[in-house]
Amino acid sequence: MRVLVTGGAGYIGSHTVLQLLAAGHDVVIADDFSNAKPSIISRLVSLSGKPVTVYTVDLTDEEATDGLFASEDIDAVIHFAGFKAVGESVAKPISYYRNNIDTALSVLQAMDRHGVRTFVFSSSATVYGENPICERTEDMPTSATNPYGWTKVMIEQILRDVAVADDSWRIALLRYFNPVGAHPSGEIGEDPNGLPNNLMPFVSQVAVGRREKLSVFGDDYDTPDGTGVRDYIHVEDLASGHLAALDTIAAGDDPLSVWNLGSGSAVSVLDVVNAFSRASGRDIPYEIVPRRPGDLPAYWADPSKANDELGWKAIRTIDDMCADTWRWQSKNPNGFPDA
Ligand code: WQD
Q: Which residue of 17, 31, 320, 334 sits 20 to 30 Å from the alpha carbon of 181, by its own alpha carbon?
């Protein structure tokens, strides 16, 4: 298939692009490069040995987005494009709602106009909001505790309404848990702008000497070691989950499907620190500090629905995640080159 990957220059998007190309798909990337460096494209071409068509485009621009569909014969869309920093979304709600909702609507409108009906959406476990049941299943109610999370909840609702209105759509809502890791080549990986919000890139930057120490946000949670517990999933497993979902919905007759993409393993902050230390051979200095507002104590995926219906399973361990992250970080101490 000819697959449009919006946000395809980003962390998860780029890893998914490589697997799409390896599987024989043609790929068109649409990215505004607001959170990705153009230098990644040459690495994708080099790693895949395949050409990639790239549009530098603001997908909130309906005319530009429609023009892309007029120029390219797209069979399916995997939609990653969107702002994704929880803290930033609290500070800039209008920007987040404008960008994330308008981007999704602009792409969906162009798809509708051009007869493209296969859509894989990058959703998030954040849509489960606060729930006393730590193991998340797809039938749980959705809510959010921040504007970023609400954009995911709202776009999921838009997609449900689209599927009800026209059952010729084939839509997958993929709810990611905590994506971490990097391509085994070490040539691409997570490269956050500025101070990392998320645990793994921060730990990685401490190990490589870019950061002095990790702040552990609380060790007084009701968890085995007192630190926050999450379900970390290797970005390569996450990418293969997208290909499995794309193939499944394209071949099926369900207008809309929902799947958790997680490992099902409950891993604490200190588990990550210790695993990274093993992988890198470096000590990871850390300091226990007060809890981060909005953080939940513990949650992880029940991935059985995806396992059963997609024939997909996350296979990489936290040690694999740390080893691959370290290879990327140690080869690229300052992330992707600017040029
Ligand atoms: C993981 C654990 C922190 C940083 C967020 C978004 C979610 C998704 C993934 C987009 C927590 C602790 C973290 C640090 C720490 N993003 N931590 N020190 O918060 O589970 O999820 O990213 O879809 O929507 O909410 O990920 O990596 O920020 O935190 O102690 O410097 O690490 O308290 O327990 P989180 P995270």
A: 31
Q: Which domain holds residue 48?
A: 2-181+232-264
CATH of residue 92's domain is 3.40.50.720
* Segment 104-133, tens digit of pLDDT: 999 999 999 999 999 999 999 999 999 999
ipTM over 0.90: yes
Residue nearest to atom 19 of ligand 1 (CA): 295
Residue 172 CA to ligand 1 centre (angstroms) = 24
23: Cβ–Cβ under 8 A, 6 or more apart, which residues? 243
Residue 270 located in a structural domain? no
pLDDT for 195? 93
338 in a structural domain: no
Give me the number of domains the chain comprises: 1
Strand bridging mode 178-180 / 135-136: unpaired
Whether residue 213 lies inside any domain: the answer is: no
CB of 202 closer than 6 A to ligand 1? yes
Q: Tell me, using a 6 A CB cutoff, whether residue 145 lines ligand 1.
A: no
The residue nearest atom 34 of ligand 1, judged by CA position, is: 228
207 Cα: distance to centroid of ligand 1 (angstroms): 18
pLDDT per residue as tens digits for the range 49-73: 999 999 999 999 999 999 999 999 9
Which of the residues are catalytic?
148
Which ligand 1 atom sits closest to the C-alpha of 179? Answer: 9
**Helix (DSSP H) and strand (DSSP E) numbers for the chain:** 11, 15
Residue 325 lies in a domain: no
